[in-house]
Structures are given as structure tokens and as C-alpha cells.
Amino acid sequence: MRNFIVLFKKEMKESMRSGKWIWLPIVMMVIGISQPLTSYYMPQILEMAGNLPEGTVIEIPMPTGAEVLVGTMSQYGTIGTLLFVLALMNVISHERQTGSLSFVMVRPVSALQYIISKYISQLSILLVALAASYLLTWYYTTILFDQVPWHLMLASLAIYSLWIIFLTAVTLFVGTLLRNSGGIAGVSVLFLGVISILTTLLPKYMEWSPGNLRQEASKILIEGEWGQSASLVSLSTLALSILFLGLAVLVFKKFERFGN
Amino acid sequence: MDTLFDVNWALLTPLLVLQAILMAFALVNCAKQEETNGPKWMWILIIIIVNIVGPVIYFLIGRKNNG
């Protein structure tokens, strides 16, 4: 446990120094609040951008607050996922390349402690970034559109956080397999993308898929209830995340034994 | 063009402030680095010119020791 705390502190310090604690939340917040703002100003944007003939009338129905939050979720699903994977790609490979990893492993540190400390520290950054962005976006939708009840907002945030939990586990696992950070990002994004596509193509067989999380979060926002499918997806996502973390520890152990 | 002045600045200011913080933080970070991937002046230009994406790219691949 003491080892874990030391490693965890080291991770936190490193993320501070590299600025991840600052830039990731800020970028997420910008992505988040852009969505309600563009929805709100859509008529003006169209008017300015498109050379519409004089007197054109465009009726755009004002979206509800829940719809705007759903739109934000889909931004998180694409740009956010990409950003998170890119932010995570260096976590293990960098220490491997500079050789500071062997420094760490000389100490009596187990693979499990190492991986879990990486996982928890990175996950906390991503979750803080996501929550800050989502809360700010919710505040904006409350001002500009109508208010989404706060318990629905929190429930959808909780469901969506599971996607981040899954994403971090996958990227960390790929990070133990490959050495090249570009490769790590590529493989992780490809894997997450394939899961999302399969989920939309084969909804019947993919009820358990983490790709459903965004849909479940939207369902909570719009229909206002926690369905049974939401529980199933949450459980399976947690199980899959633990599985990937376990695999990461196994692969890492092997690497530790044989050196590079 | 008067629509441009119709916008409620109270709504947009937080967005602009966030972008400014991000840019300033990236610039300070870049200036403090001993060495970056590629020439430093190039990164400073990228951070200033390319909104939002510029600083992000700098943090992701511009730093030599990326933690």
C-alpha cells in the first residue's frame, strides 16, 4: 500500500509538471460549452455564413436542454475520446523509452501496484476534466435553454464516466503491448471505434457493449429513467475494464521479467 | 454585420477566457522548456495562430519529455 501511494504521488506530480491537469480540463470545457452556444446562436450563424437571399425565413425549433446535453455527449464521444486516448498514449511508453521504468522496477514494486497507480492517477484527471466540462455545460443549458433536473444530469454523467473507465483500461493495456506512442493511440482508437460501430450495426448481440453507454446516458436525459439495460451495460463495462487491467498487469509482468 | 454585436458577451466571455488561459499556459510552458520537438519558434507560432488545437498539439507532441 505504501508503494502504491508513493507511485500515485509521483504520477500526480508528473501530470502536474506536464500540464495535463490544466490543459485537459480546459480543452474539455471549451468543447463542452461550445455545444450549447452553437445551438443557441444557430440562426445567427446561418444568417452570417450562408449567403441567403433577402427575406429567407428559417425556422429552427429551439432544442430542449436535454437535447443539447445529448449533443454534448456526442461531442465527448468523438473529439473527447480521441483527446483522452492521445493524452494517455505516453503514460507507459514514455517511461519505457527513457529507461526510467527500469529505475522504478528495481525497487520492490509489483506490476499490479505500478499499473493500478497509473490507472487511478490518469483516470482521476480524465474524470475531473469530464465532470468539470459537463457541469459547466449543464449550467449553460440551464441559462440558455431549459433546466435539466440535476439528478438526471448526475446520472447521465455517472453512466458516461464508465466509458472513460473503459477507455483508460483499454489504452493502458495497449500501452503495455506496444512501445510506439503513435501505435498505442492508433490501436486504442481503432479498437474503441470498432466497438462503437459493431454496437450500432448489431444491436441485438451487443446489448452488453460499452458502446451503448452514450445511448444509455442520452436515454436517461431524455426519458428520465434508469432502464434495466443501463444496469447491464454498466456491469459489463466494469467487468471488461477489470479484465483489461488484469491483462495489462500480466503483459507488464512478462515485460518486467524479460526486460524490453 | 450588426448581428455580430448582438451577441451576449456575458455568454461568450468565459469561452474566450478559457482559450486565453490555455494559450498563455502553453506559451509559458513552451518558453520554459529546454528543448522541444522541432524549433521552439515554430511551436510558439502554432500555439498562437491555431486556436485551441495548437496548444493541444503542443502538449501532445511538442514536449520532449512527455509525462
From TrEMBL, chain A:
Positions of transmembrane segments: 21-42, 73-92, 119-140, 152-178, 185-206, 226-252
Pfam families: ABC2_membrane_2
Keywords, alphabetical: Membrane, Transmembrane, Transmembrane helix
Name of the molecule in the record: ABC-2 type transport system permease protein
Organism: Cytobacillus eiseniae
Lineage of source species: Bacteria, Bacillati, Bacillota, Bacilli, Bacillales
From TrEMBL, chain B:
Membrane topology: Multi-pass membrane protein
Organism phylogeny: Bacteria, Bacillati, Bacillota, Bacilli, Bacillales
Main location group: membrane
Entry keyword annotation includes Transferase: no
Transmembrane residue ranges: 40-61
This protein's record includes keyword Membrane: yes
InterPro entries: CLS_N
Organism: Cytobacillus eiseniae
Name used for this protein in its record: Cardiolipin synthase N-terminal domain-containing protein
Domain Cardiolipin synthase N-terminal: 21-63
Record localization: Cell membrane
Keywords of the record: Cell membrane, Membrane, Transmembrane, Transmembrane helix
